[in-house]
């Protein structure tokens, strides 16, 4: 007998209690934001399967929200390609192939329960395609202000030793500055795709005790950009990314705990 049964709770009571706990996790987002987050997480984790039709009346009662709030939340998920509505069928979950997986919120929701190994691997593949080319472009396009932003990120990285949250922030600032230095608006937008997954990867790596210093590998990229050396900038970034992959593999193999 579980605790709910021992308290005389019905199945509906237990679902409502679970829903209230879920909503409480996103208390700072308001009722609208909370509703979006809870439904999205259920879909992305498979609790609500692809192709399933949503029971709006049951969701409204369980989450204790107005029908207007529920519909507004579903509009957000519709815009992200996650749900859709049809006459006679109602509101349903679209196939994963239709989801906007490059949306920042969708990526964040996938990491909500911790690091997803497959998603981290996919992120590393995306970075391996984008960032060496970005470093090459930056070496020919970066302004003095761009280089100063990269230098500031390096300085923050050096000062963040032993402070995981500061190390994550500094690394994100570095990669954001790198994309900005390409002066390509589409590449700059890739920050939305990478930042959540990169932050999660960084929390894994920087959250462990390590004597590793990330500054030299990042400085090699900045020095090449400063010198206008396209080949060196691209090579330095490839080496930095290869090291990032090794860091994650060490954690997975248990070596990061030694």
UniProtKB/TrEMBL annotation:
Which of UniProt's keywords are assigned here?
DNA-binding, Transcription, Transcription regulation
Any Pfam family the entry gives: GntR
Q: Does the keyword rRNA-binding apply?
A: no
Q: List, alphabetically, the CDD domains matched.
A: WHTH_GntR
Domain of life of the organism in this record?
Answer: Bacteria
**Keyword Transcription: yes or no?**
yes
Task: State the InterPro entries in the record.
Answer: GntR_C, TF_FadR/GntR_C, Tscrpt_reg_HTH_GntR, WH-like_DNA-bd_sf, WH_DNA-bd_sf
User: What sequence ranges are listed for the domain HTH gntR-type?
Assistant: 29-96
A GO MF annotation of the entry reads:
DNA-binding transcription factor activity
Q: Which PANTHER family match?
A: GNTR FAMILY REGULATORY PROTEIN, TRANSCRIPTIONAL REGULATOR, GNTR FAMILY
- State the protein's name: DNA-binding transcriptional regulator, FadR family
| Organism in which the protein naturally occurs | Micromonospora avicenniae
Q: What is the lineage of its organism?
A: Bacteria, Bacillati, Actinomycetota, Actinomycetes, Micromonosporales
């Amino acid at each position: 007998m579980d605790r709910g049964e021992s308290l005389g709770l019905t199945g509906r009571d237990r679902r409502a209690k679970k829903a209230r706990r879920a909503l409480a996790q996103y208390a700072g987002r308001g009722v609208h934001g909370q509703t979006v987050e809870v439904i999205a997480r259920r879909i992305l984790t498979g609790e609500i399967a692809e192709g399933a039709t949503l029971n709006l009346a049951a969701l409204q009662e369980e989450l204790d929200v107005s029908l207007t709030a529920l519909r507004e939340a579903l509009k957000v998920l519709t815009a992200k390609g996650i749900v859709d509505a049809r006459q006679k069928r109602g509101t349903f979950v679209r196939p994963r192939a239709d989801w906007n997986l490059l949306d920042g919120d969708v990526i964040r929701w996938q990491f909500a329960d911790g690091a997803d190994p497959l998603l981290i691997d996919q992120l590393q593949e995306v970075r391996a395609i984008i960032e060496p080319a970005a470093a090459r472009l930056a070496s020919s396009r970066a302004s003095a202000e761009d280089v100063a932003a990269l230098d500031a990120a390096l300085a923050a990285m050096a000062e963040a030793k032993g402070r995981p949250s500061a190390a994550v922030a500094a690394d994100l600032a570095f990669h954001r500055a790198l994309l900005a230095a390409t002066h390509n608006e589409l590449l700059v937008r890739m920050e939305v795709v990478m930042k959540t997954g990169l932050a999660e990867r960084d929390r894994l790596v920087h959250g462990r005790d390590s004597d590793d210093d990330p500054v030299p590998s990042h400085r090699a990229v900045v020095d090449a950009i400063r010198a206008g050396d396209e080949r060196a900038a691209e090579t330095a970034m490839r080496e930095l990314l290869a090291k990032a992959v090794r860091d994650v593999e060490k954690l997975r193999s248990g070596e990061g705990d030694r």
